[in-house]
Each structure stands twice: as structure tokens, then as C-alpha cells.
User: Fold this.
Amino acid sequence: MSAEMPTSLEEIFASDDDGLLDEPEKAPVLTGHDRLRRSFVEINDFVVEHGREPDPTVRTIQERRLGARLDGIRANPEKVEALANLDEHRLLAEGAEEELSLEDILALDDDLLEDETGILDTSMLPKKITRGEPEWVAKRERAKGFEAFEPLFKQKHAELRSGVAGLAADPVEAHIQKGTFFVLGGVMLFVAEVGETEVVAGRRKERLRVIFENGTESSMYRQSLTSRLHEEDSFLVTQREVTITELEAGDELTGHIYVLRSLSDHPEVVGRPNLHKIGFTRGSVKRRLVGAEKQVTYLMAPVEVVADYKTYNLRAASLEHLLHTVFATSRVPFEQVGLDGRAAEASEWFDVPLEAIDRALTFVQDGSIVNWVYDREAGTLKPRVR
Assistant:
């Protein structure tokens, strides 16, 4: 026989063994201390995700808000003290001593971590699952061998001032290649190396070596640099094409005079920041340079195009020979061993600043190049003494 149904409110409440009719507990009221701790946890989460502290000066509203919050906390000693146990990234520490390693701690006292009771045994505790934390947080450090990169930055700035180079907004991931320059948040950077493809957490990634003009470097992933380029004011540094002779109806493109920079790590190359190859092609420069790292003429290394001059109604080969003659005193011959094992000479390399080459081409346009000669000591073109 089924149990009798309750007939009064008292009986209904009395029969509620599962607490279904209990009034829900009110959420605890957050104190100012709780809100402070929560706000600092947001800052810690930002550091984990981006590998750096939030910047209060950027245009991104969320990051600017967190950066301003961090500045406010640092300016308040009471808040700094209250958050000391949450400061896992040492954002609030000033002059803090280097953290001790596990080996250092163990060396302090052999009996420090003895645990006969097993109270420190955590093997049976549930594992903490951390979501959204990057596999590796890229951090900047002092760039090794920066003296070899510093002249490249100086030259690139000179190219921007002279108009030989330009800035293109909204760079994309495809632009991130070895030898490429970007401007990120007002700081120029150079992609010095692109590593082999790795598979991390099921995703294909490539580690980069990125050199910054302030003398630091980072080994961030390609995707991380892409994100930074989208989040902050950024530009791709490009080379403009220059047309030799003014165009008229019916003018014919006869070729390209191109100027290259070697990306070789050979000391003789790295030690010459103004080392350039002057060459010509009747077709596409990009197609001409396919497989450059396997050719003696390109020093068996990748190259970067720093200038591309289109020639109209002129024989590009003759123009190339003329430029080689003008800069003959600065020619730097290299002997290279090709893939076939035979030694050959690469003879189209010159220790000349790009500004001098660009100026020489302007003299070609007005026909006055015959009146100029390159002064190797001064590093510039001077009137020919007759």
C-alpha cells in the first residue's frame, strides 16, 4: 500500500528529507580584499598567456586596463603587502633576491623535508588541470652576438629615411620569414631564424629567433608573433621598386637591377654590414633567386632583396656592368665550394652602402654617372677629378 500524501504545509515541510524546499544559501558578500585579489589574479593570467606584464599605454582596452591596475597596486604599499602570496611572477618585488632552486633548498638542511608520517605525500591527490596555459612562455633576454645585428637595424632606418624602404600596415603571418623586418609598438625587430616545424599539443608550430633593436631577443612561436602584430601597432618593413627612366607610351621593360643582402652567418659576411650583391635579370627577381642557398654566386646562403630597380628601354646587363665599374674599388671577392665540390669565385659582391647605390642610379637616369666615382674611404660618390 502506498504512503499517504501529506495534507498540510507542516507535513510537507516535515517530509522534505532531501532539502528541496530549503531556502538557497546567499552568495557571500565580496570584501574589498577579495576584489583586490581577484583583480590581481587577472593580471597573473595575462602574464601567463602573453609572457609579459600588461602595458598601460597600448590601445587595446583590456590590456591598458590591466596595466593601469598593476601600476596602481605597485604605488600602494598596503596592496603590495596584501598580494605578496599571489605574486607568482614577481611583479611586485623590488630588488628581490634570486629564487632558490630545489637543489638549493635541499642543501640548506638535509632533514628539512623528512616526512616519516607521510603527510607530505601528494601522490594520491587529484591532479590539477590547467587550461589555456601556453606550453612555453617566450621571454626576452639579452641578444647574443647583437653587434652583428646592430648595423642591420641602422641601415634599415637609413633606408626608411631615404625612402628606399617603406612601411606596410597590417602585416600577416605569411610575411614572417627569415630576414624580415617589422616595427612592433614603435620598436623594430628582425626575424633572424625560423626553426623546424614542431608538433605541440597537436598543433604545428615553428620557433623563431627574433632580434629587437634594443639589444634583446626572444624565441617565440610564429603564432605568438602573429598575435602580437595584430594586437599592437605594427608594420612590415618593405622595399620599394624604383623605375629607371620615366615611362612613356610604348616603353618596354628590359629587366631588373637588384641589390641583395646575404643572410649567411659566415664571419666575413656578418662583419660587413654594407656588403651587397648587385645583379640583373630579365625576368622576375623572385624567380631568379629560387634556390639561392645552393648557388655559389649567392654565397651558398639565403639572401634578402633590399632594392629592385626596373629598367625601361635600357639594357640591364650594360647597366649592371656600369655599376660594377663605378664601385670596382669596393669589390669583395669570395671563394665558395659548390654542391659539386668545386671551388668558384662569387665576384658581384661590393662593400657599399645602399644609399650610394641608390644615388648612382639617379645619376644613370640623367646621364651624369660618367662624372662620378665612388670614394671607398668616405663611403660615398664624389665628382670625378679630370
Q: What stands out?
A: Residues 32-50 form the longest helix (19 residues).
